[in-house]
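Question (not urgent): is this output format expected?
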Amino acid sequence: MEKKTTPQKPGKRAEDRETRLKAALKANLARRKAQTRGRKAPDEAETPEQKDN
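Got this back:
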């Protein structure tokens, strides 16, 4: 037996896709920002060698 699916309106599918892409972009940006912050933190800390100079 074949499954019958109700066809969605093209406009609705485009909106769903845009919403998913927007959410993925937002999550990716947040992840990249957190990654950048994590990379900067160790560099900013002074080592004992830097304090002597």
